[in-house]
Fold this sequence. Notes:
Blueprint: E1 2-4, E2 7-16, E3 19-28, H1 29-33, E4 40-45, H2 52-85
Antiparallel strand pairs: 1-2, 2-3, 3-4
Amino acid sequence: MYLIGDFFVQVSLENTGGRWTALARFSRKFDYLLHGDVSSVVCSAPVSGVDRWHAEQAALVWARTVVESRASHLESLLVESAAARH
């Protein structure tokens, strides 16, 4: 798990026949401090890499760009996710 801005990002990678795919799970750093429910949103990350390390690095660069440019959108998705669970 990586801390990017106010969000934690967990990257899951899968090699499907020589092609890497990645999912990025975003959650709020603040939610972990409350010791309660932690909302998360999973997004498919566009990656290309010759190996696992390069694919993970590409997914992290993409996740950092999402956090930096779309933090308010991520926040609204997390609010929707929490509301849907209750």
